[in-house]
Specification:
- InterPro entries: TrpB-like_PALP_sf.
- It contains 3 helices and no strands.
- It is mainly alpha-helical and 67 residues long.
- The protein is globular and about 35 Å long.
Amino acid sequence: MVTDDQIQEAMRFTFDRLKIVVEPSGATGLAAILSGAAGRLPSRVGVIISGGNIDAGRFADVCGTAT
């Protein structure tokens, strides 16, 4: 399980590092990996990051403030 803050951080990560806009539900898997909630992982992991169905204003609200 991941928190809303962890999902928002994953959204910021994808935008800052990958230049990809992703909606909250599409960032959940990445949030689990980044936060450690996915548990112990092998050295190579694949994660599906999907969905850009988020309003520009809402995306700015979510990603505009650092935690």
